[in-house]
């Protein structure tokens, strides 16, 4: 599924910075085109479902929540 995102690009020193305006993701590159391509890759990775490396463990912790 493809979804459009808004982005802005600006120059900061020697780098072009591309920032998504819809999701808190940004990237950089030597050119505007490279910064946007890197932002596209970063967004694809951001929305990629996580792949666990081991089964999740359910743990119990105790927390002090009131005055003793």
Poorly predicted tracts of residues: none
The major sheet is characterized as: 3 strands, antiparallel
**Share of helix among residues?**
10-25%
Helix and strand element order: EEEH
Q: What's the end-to-end separation, in Å?
A: 53 Å
Shape: elongated
- Tally of DSSP β-strands: 3
Which percent band covers the strand fraction? 15-25%
Q: What would you report as the Rg, rounded to the nearest angstrom? A: 19 Å
Class by helix and strand content? Answer: alpha+beta
Determine the mean pLDDT.
94
Explain this structure.
The protein is an alpha+beta fold and 68 residues long. The protein has one helix and three strands, in the order βββα. The model has no long low-confidence stretch (mean pLDDT 94).
